[in-house]
Amino acid sequence: MPVISAQKDPEALSLTFVAEFDADAERVWQLWADPRQLERWWGPPGWPATFVRHEFVVGGASRYHMTGPEGEKAHGWWTITAIDAPHQLEFDDGFAGEDGEPVDPADRTHAVVTLEQVGDRTRMTTVSTFRSREQLEKMAAMGMEEGMRQAMGQIDALLAEGHAAG
């Protein structure tokens, strides 16, 4: 499992994941930048993601949905707030309606993804910050920690495919 730690911090209103991958930062960065690669790991197993829009620029919008085993769809959105390729990405995200647009733009989390070269591996630290303790607890109750662990657990296979193809 690439996730080496997950920490919920109710005081800081955050959930932090640290994962390590056998690839350089440029390659791991592509997992975020390329919507076709992103959708292969963003949803946990059984809930694949489909990105119908992914504007990977500051101010850019992403719209996606995850499809469950019974065909149900969970829609989400991102607005990218900062990019420092291939080291850091920041975005706001939240729930979307069936049209892909935010249900309540104020009901969002803020994510900061940092990629750091550690020898021949890349450490990816993802910090999601919540607007309130209630929002943090709601997302935890919905299984966000386990879902992210499982989603990130799919990255190694995707990276291995890339090496075989490259």
TrEMBL record:
Domain named Activator of Hsp90 ATPase homologue 1/2-like C-terminal: residues: 22-159
InterPro entries in UniProt: ASHA1/2-like_C (IPR013538), START-like_dom_sf (IPR023393)
Domain of life (superkingdom): Bacteria
Family: Belongs to the AHA1 family.
Protein name in UniProt: Uncharacterized protein YndB with AHSA1/START domain
The organism of origin for this protein: Micromonospora sagamiensis
Organism lineage string: Bacteria, Bacillati, Actinomycetota, Actinomycetes, Micromonosporales
